[in-house]
Amino acid sequence: MKITKSLGMLLLGIWLIMTGLIPLLQLSFSGLGTAMAVLAIAAGALILVGR
Description:
This protein has helices spanning 7-25, 32-49. By secondary structure, it is an all-alpha fold.
């Protein structure tokens, strides 16, 4: 298994895993929605600039 060197794709992968685990494990922390939004924005921006 090869881990990507692209930071944007790595953040996207983390975001997708967290998006799947949150409802599955019924996690609810204050600020979790904000953290997920920031992670999604960072991943999208880095993918667009090619990092």
